[in-house]
What we know:
The protein is an alpha/beta fold. It folds into 2 domains: 2-56 and 251-267, ornithine cyclodeaminase, domain 1 (2-Layer Sandwich), CATH 3.30.1780.10; 75-248, Rossmann fold. Helices cover 35% and strands 24% of the residues. The protein contains 9 helices and 12 strands. The chain has helices spanning 54-72, 87-99, 112-126, 136-140, 183-187, 196-202, 204-212, 224-228, 250-267; strands at 2-8, 13-21, 33-40, 47-52, 79-83, 104-108, 129-133, 145-148, 167-170, 190-193, 220-223, 242-245. The strands form 2 sheets. Strands 7-6-5-8-9-12-10-11 form an 8-stranded parallel β-sheet. Strands 1-2-3-4 form a 4-stranded antiparallel β-sheet. Helix 1 packs parallel to helix 2 (87-99) and helix 1 crosses helix 9 (250-267). The two termini are 27 Å apart. The model has no long low-confidence stretch (mean pLDDT 94).
Amino acid sequence: MGVMPAYLGDLGALSTKIVTSFDGNPSKSLPTIMATVCLCDPTTGELISVMEGSYLTALRTGGLGGLAARYLSRENAHTVGLVGAGVQARTQLMALAEVRKITSVKVYDILNERADAFATEMQKKLGIEVQSCSRAAEAVRGSDIIVTVSTSKMPVFDGDLIEPGAHISAFGNFKPNERELDSKTVLKSRVFVDSEEAALAEAGDLLIPIREGTIKRSHILGEIGEVLIGSKPGRRSGGDVTLFKSVGIGIQDCAAASLAYTKAKEAGLGKEISLR
């Protein structure tokens, strides 16, 4: 269980997200990650909203993946390989379809039926060819954009499969002693993160190769926000392999929760309750 408090002064938003991660949930037809977001009045601390946070988390995470791909993937990137077929895979693909002209998708999940259901659902939803794969390598090989949203504790594919020009977004694992990506993948990539401080505390994908001596901390070239404002260069050439590693930070939830609350109020949605 994690607790993620955040305050955005310019937005006037104060929130806390309580998030849990249970690896066995998919076998029980439950999402791996579940969350609740509490939004408070930033001037008094009064609780003003409690909202289901799992889908909110998926939306903000998918949006972040789309943003990273917009700035780090090749402009002509059109094929996607997904490792993991849960809720977050859906929002990742939805966001990618907004920033790139995606023509084909390959998806792998450790539960074959989940990959099959994802392929059927998202092909119909987005009008894009989506193919279910029996191995992660099939989804990764030849893909312009690779997204990992699994709960694996060990690398899900061989870094030798990554071709020049590919972009990788790694969202699945956020524990310091576990990883989805092998050291070869990280070593060959221009690496960016959402928060360097958080990544160096939680991202096993980066911490393990640092401890091994495969890379140094300086291999992390910057935060995605620095790329957005132009203070750090992202992709330099069509042959670069770029990697965006996200562990998730509270301000992302705070911004999304504030927007959801504002929209709900405008639409007259939600239920008023008294806790006193």
